[in-house]
Amino acid sequence: MKDFKGKLAIVTGGGTGMGRELVRQLTAAGCHVATCDVSEENMHETQRLCAQDSPSVRVTTHLCDVADETQVLAFRDAALKAHERDDINLLFNNAGIGGGESFLINKREEWDRTFGVCWFGVYYCSRAFMPFLVASSEGYIVNTSSVNGFWAVTNTAYSAAKFAVKGFSEALVTDLRLNAPHVKVAVVMPGHIGSSLAINTDKVLGRPTPKDMSAADIAKIRRRMVESGMPGGNDSDEQIRAAIQQQLDDFSNKAPLSAGQAATIILDGVHNDRWRILVGDDAHAADKMVREAPEQVYEADFRVALRKQLT
Question: How far apart are CA 203 and CA 259, in angstroms?
Fold first, then answer.
């Protein structure tokens, strides 16, 4: 798809991070956008930025939890009505959260919530919008997986969902070529991108912010730190709260690639008809190493070797 001008894109999770940047860059290229998120406030800020930079295109915002198929269908109907269209050209299944780290320790509700957003959100939106992609003269579905879609690291719900997204997208490559050759698919696998994913995850899962953590919350964190041999097990409650907040800030502010840079790489991949889009040097390095030594990827020295590749 060489030109986005005049086309209609659907972007899930458009309130922050890569989703917001995808909306902004699409509108800058003359593309109309319908975006959804669970935060009206964040979506309105995305819409304001687009109106400021690209006033000639239309951006509509829709409150939707993509893990709920009823809400997804309502979003689809509202988006098509708002844009007076019976087809779409682009679907970016971008919405995602973390959480559900341990299958053994974390609550099932948290695990299911993470898997629901990261996998069923992609599935429900693909089901809802696919007929309208097929109805277009030119279509592209872009599914966001992760480096954890080919290298599962600790977060079992997130990794399981991202593996599912990768497998689904790869299966669609042939399915679309046979049954709707004018529609293409891309699977996006980002490494560490500067975004508010961690903060948004805590909000969606109802976790307390570091400053609101109870003494019992801190005690659990301290116990896990000691059990895993991490430093800081003897730190005060306030020191642990500060360290957690610093980790959240660093995830967003000290990432090797910004959300805007990631969005540019994704859209360049669409322009160049790529079905597999790795985002970031860390994603490229991990992909290469996993392919070369798949039996070693969960050994401690693999992480050490990966860090050396990136320094």
Answer: 20
Say how many CA atoms lie within 13 Å of 252 toward its Cβ: 14
Only one residue has tokens 């780290």, namely 101
Indicate whether 86 and 232 sit together in one domain: no
pLDDT truncated to tens, each residue of the chain (311 aa)?
A: 889 999 999 999 999 999 999 999 999 999 999 999 999 999 999 999 999 999 999 999 999 999 999 999 999 999 999 999 999 999 999 999 988 889 998 899 999 999 999 999 999 999 999 999 999 999 999 999 999 999 998 799 999 999 999 999 999 999 999 999 999 999 999 999 987 777 777 778 877 787 888 888 788 778 877 776 677 667 787 888 888 787 777 777 778 899 999 999 999 999 999 999 999 999 999 999 999 999 999 998 888 898 888 87
Which domain CATH number covers 181?
Answer: 3.40.50.720
**Residue whose token pair is 């696998």:** 189
Clarify whether residues 294 and 231 are in a common domain. Answer: no
Same domain, 102 and 149: yes
Both 304 and 166 in a single domain?
no
Q: What is the pTM of this model?
A: 0.90
On whether residue 138 sits in a domain, the answer given is yes
Length of the chain counted residue by residue? 311
Are the C-beta atoms of residues 232 and 239 closer than 8 Å to each other?
yes
Q: Which domain holds residue 291?
A: 283-311
Q: How far apart are CA 158 and CA 146, in angstroms?
A: 9
Give the Cα separation of 274 and 294 in Å (integer). 24
Secondary structure class of 172 (helix, strand, coil): helix
